[in-house]
Specification:
- By secondary structure, the protein is α+β, with helices and mostly antiparallel strands.
- The chain has one domain: Aminopeptidase.
- It has 4 helices and 8 strands, in the order ββααβββαβαββ.
- Strands 1-2-3-4-5-6-8-7 form an 8-stranded mixed beta sheet, sandwiched between helices.
- The chain is globular.
- The protein starts with a strand and ends with a strand.
- Bound molecules: coenzyme A (COA).
- The site of coenzyme A (COA) has 19 residues, from β5, α3 and α4.
- The site of coenzyme A has 19 residues, from β5, α3 and α4.
């Protein structure tokens, strides 16, 4: 489990547990116009290709969920499905640490390349992904339900 001391508190990234779900759904609804439901998270958890890691502040039942990252690993590819941070905890490096953890995990399991889709208008997330070396390789026109385009980004992962 990764530990990062930040501002006098101990923040840890660990695997998803069912105790995280309610706070994750709160963050999900605050983050997306079409948020994932509990059922969608459950389906991902049943998928053995899928990994979900959660950033928490504190321990046990009192832990505050700061954010989470969800991705698939298969055939040397990492597909980033979801990364979200509590709006009250943004711009504190939580997203950066989650992405870094996911990429390290993927690299350690032999992933050679990472893919993701991001809304064209999502400048903050695109900047975060660019910081980690993702570059734009194409556009999926009207990919999202409201008609917005997705930008497809690729990262060559060094193992
Ligand atoms: C995208 C998201 C996960 C970033 O989480 P975060 O914890 O705020 O990110 P960090 O604090 O680690 O930011 C790292 C860097 O990303 C960039 N960044 C993040 N949010 C940004 C914003 N709103 N505007 C501009 N740049 C931003 C900056 O370069 C930032 O570094 P800096 O704060 O030193 O300038 C968060 O904004 C979020 O949950 N958004 C809603 C869900 C979403 O859009 N997810 C991505 C789906 S593809």
């Amino acid at each position: 489990m990764a530990v990062a001391a930040t501002g006098g508190t101990s923040r840890r990234i660990g695997r998803y547990t069912p105790a995280d779900l309610d706070q994750m759904l709160f963050i999900e609804r605050a983050s997306y116009p079409n948020p994932w439901t509990g059922q969608m998270f459950a389906e991902e958890l049943d998928n053995r290709l899928c990994h979900i890691f959660v950033s928490r502040d504190g321990d046990g039942g009192a832990a505050e969920v700061l954010g989470y990252v969800c991705f698939w690993l298969f055939l040397g590819e990492m597909h980033l499905l979801n990364v979200a941070v509590d709006p009250a905890r943004r711009r504190q490096g939580v997203g950066r640490r989650l992405l870094s953890h996911a990429l390290d995990f993927a690299a350690a399991r032999g992933a050679k390349v990472g893919f993701l889709e991001v809304r064209r208008s999502n400048r903050g997330a695109r900047r975060l992904y660019e910081e980690y070396g993702f570059s734009e390789i194409g556009i999926r026109p009207r990919y999202y339900e409201d008609g917005e385009d997705a930008v497809v980004m690729l990262l060559e992962i060094s193992n």
